[in-house]
Amino acid sequence: MQKIKTKKQKDSDQRPSWDEYFMEISQIVAKRSTCLRRRVGAIIVKNRRILATGYNGTPTKISHCSDVGCIRIKLNVPSGQRHELCRGLHAEQNALLQAALYGISVEGASLYITNQPCLICAKMIINAGIREIVIADGYPDKLAEQFLKEAQIKVRRISVRL
Question: In this structure, are residues 122 and 80 in contact, taking their beta carbons and an 8 Å threshold?
């Protein structure tokens, strides 16, 4: 039998807000990442329903960086630069591709992601019709920030830790 609390619950027992809930899920999704430099997770949400998830890692049927090593580490490529020199896709790219693969429209949806998108991802997000991005951490890409602002995509930062 389930015990029902009659007194006010403690803060630690409270249900998370929707933002906290979705951000915590994106942090769990990030644990699937095979990237050796940064683990990132993303989920696309519309009407409080998860449409797609993605984490940063290599395309299907391509060896993982965790197995064969990181090109970017070998070449000493700074974070936020030369994204084409990478075996993997970014988390938000994978989430958008999963939605496309299964025929799911993401227009008007929100993207919860553990890190701010880079410029390449920002452009994809803009054209996919995402209306809002909720991030937990930053990323060194000021141009991406400018593009998202110009496209009038709302970007919010929340602090949630598992």
Answer: no
**pLDDT tens digits for 57-91?**
999 999 999 899 999 999 999 887 888 889 999 99
Containing 51, the helix (H) or strand (E) segment is: strand 49-55
CA atoms within 13 A on the CB side of 30: 22
Single out the catalytic residue among 92, 132, 145, 150.
92
Predicted confidence at residue 6, as pLDDT, reads: 45
Tokens representing 21 are 């809930």
Whether 92 is a known active-site residue: answer yes
